[in-house]
Design goal:
Radius of gyration: 15 Å
Structural class: alpha+beta
Bound molecules: coenzyme A
Order of helices and strands: EHHEEEHEHEE
Strand content: 35-45%
Distance between the termini: 13 Å
CATH architecture: 3-Layer(aba) Sandwich
Strand order of the largest sheet: 1-2-3-4-5-7-6
CATH topology: Aminopeptidase
Number of strands: 7
Largest sheet: 7 strands, mixed
CATH class: Alpha Beta
Helix content: 25-40%
Shape: globular
């Protein structure tokens, strides 16, 4: 397992999150894409994983509704995968949410994002729903997990 430093990203670091995002996702996104997502949301938490001061992964959550936190988006650079980086990001996010008395955490991914499906199952999430997403022409898998019995 690679030990990383997990930090909370301030506004300046959103640039680095956008850069990480653009290395892994299409279409490209700018900082405004992330700032818009945070508008009107409570308890947004953008986390970045640093390996030897280099940003190599990010993990972003916010409140979905009272009692429920939402993991919106996260990814780790391909060359750093399967080294426990997402596990460390997730642990930091969930500890932070549990400290703020959220009871559940929800997340979603597309059916084709198999790495994340494996990750979520391993992390102790239950599959609690599925819906068709017309924008991406794929099924969206919905996961939930109690923060009282944290695993991973
Ligand atoms: C999903 C993702 C974040 C996982 O990051 P990671 O740092 O590689 O994950 P970890 O190393 O912490 O994995 C923890 C456990 O999850 C499971 N897991 C993670 N990736 C897996 C894969 N590709 N296949 C099977 N199991 C996997 C394993 O059980 C793993 O433990 P192990 O390596 O000891 O067996 C990463 O693959 C990624 O960024 N994918 C592309 C972006 C994406 O799909 N994001 C999610 C949707 S928004």
């Amino acid at each position: 397992m690679a030990q990383v430093e997990i930090i909370i990203a301030d506004d300046r670091m959103l640039v680095q999150i956008a850069e990480l995002y653009n290395q892994m996702f299409r279409p490209r996104a700018d900082v405004g894409y992330f700032q818009r997502r945070f508008l009107g949301r409570r308890c947004s938490l953008p986390l970045v994983a640093l390996f030897e001061s280099r940003p190599i992964g990010f993990w972003i959550g916010y409140e979905l509704k009272p009692g429920m936190y939402y993991h919106w988006l996260g990814a780790v650079l391909p060359e750093f995968r399967r080294k426990g980086i997402a596990r460390q990001l997730q642990e930091a996010q969930q500890a932070w949410a549990r400290d703020r008395e959220y009871e559940y955490i929800r997340t979603e991914c597309m059916n084709h994002q198999r790495e994340f499906i494996h990750f979520a199952i391993e992390a102790g999430y239950d599959i609690c729903g599925i819906r068709w997403d017309s924008t991406h022409a794929d099924n969206l898998i919905i996961f939930e997990k109690s923060l009282h019995n944290m695993t991973l």
